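#struct-help
A.M.: can someone run this one for me? Single chain, 326 residues.
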Amino acid sequence: MQQLSAGQKLDNAFEKLGKEKSISFELDLDTDAQSLKALDASSDPEPGEEMSDDIAELFSGVKASVTLQSKKPIAESGEKDYVGMSLKIGNKDGDLTEYRVVGDYTYIRSDVNAVGKAMGFPAPSAKDLPPGADGLKKVLQGQWVKINTKEFEKGTADMAAVPGAKPAPEPTLDAKTQQRLLEALRGTIAREVDFKTVDGKDGAEHITATAPFRTLITKLLGEIRPLAKNLPVGMELPTDKDLKDAPNAKVAADFTLKNGELTEVSVDLAELAENAKVKKLGLVVRMVDGQTPTAPAGATEMGVDEFLGGFGAAMMDQEAFSEDAA
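D.P.: on it. Structure tokens below:
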């Protein structure tokens, strides 16, 4: 009865969340620099491509804040139904980058110097920019800029297109297929996942879901494969052979519910690393009060060519300068 009760409670909580037209959540990477470097080392990176201390420190403290706003309930929404979206990424030192999609525009700001330093690609200075790149100067100063979203999408698609080739159809997933995928997920979880319920503080309830990773993924993909013909073009599912070397350690996810509503999810992934030096590796998702993405005042409008071409050219000049200096 406890298994059924816990599963039903989670199912109801996610259904309730899916009926919302706006959701906001924070995503934390619960790890440390030592674990990230150990995880990187176990992947046998090429000499000189090992994760640096700066990058490990950057990602060990990363937090992302996300808001989605739709005309329809989230569970029924397709790409065209979203009317607002925002993503902010930061760490203990402050915000690193943020973008918002509101109306016809995408708004962006970033601490270019902090990101560039951590990634090993120092940002160009204003004097490195081509003439007329006023918008890019604002980017380097950490101020808001805006780009027409449709023009930006077209520009990036044109850059990625093979000359003479027909444009690939946009990936779509119809509502019926979405529902069948959801049913496959629910059925697999009901059969393969063990649930345990514990009462928490302040009326909160904790439900722990545990399952062997490879078994869960293999069973889930087995349920999804009959739907493969209905999936977007280019979405290929891994075979059982592809998954045979995946770790089968048990993964535990802890769900916190309050008044029947999902408030937090935490997942411990350290066991999947199969590396004793990876001491801490988890993900935490916290639901927060719904917010409405708004257009920031005073954003400088940039043309797509300036954004895609000018900044890239400036970065290439910076790399060339660094090579010459070496």
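A.M.: thanks! Confidence is low (pLDDT under 50) at residues 312-326.
D.P.: also worth noting: The CA atoms of residues 126 and 287 lie 40 Å apart.
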